[in-house]
Amino acid sequence: MPSYEGRVEELLKFKIQRYPFKDTHLFKTLEKALKWIAPLHLPDPADESFKPEYCKTFHDITRFAHEKAMTEMFGIGTVHDVKDSWTIPLSAGIPIYAHMMAIDGGVKNNTKKASPEDNL
């Protein structure tokens, strides 16, 4: 009587591949490209190397552009002199220092400090 060793070699050729995509040319190409896309080398905006010349990947470029946009958008009252300008301090009921831009009459007149309700 034959003994069972835990494997039937004749059936292994019918084994379902778990990740058939990994063996494709497309997967291997994407895997090579990923090193230029995903790694982040600029995690800390306070770091001395947080400069465009240190961007090595698309993730770095996106991170740098996003951080600079946020700094510009939310730092307008601290970086620029906003007295007598087209911005109004925003009082939103949360701990954030931000200014609302009064574009094309979009804020109620004579408002010294704007709330979200003052936006027309």
TrEMBL record:
Keywords: Kinase, Pyruvate, Transferase. It comes from the Bacteria. GO terms for molecular function: kinase activity. This is Pyruvate, water dikinase. It comes from Candidatus Hakubella thermalkaliphila.
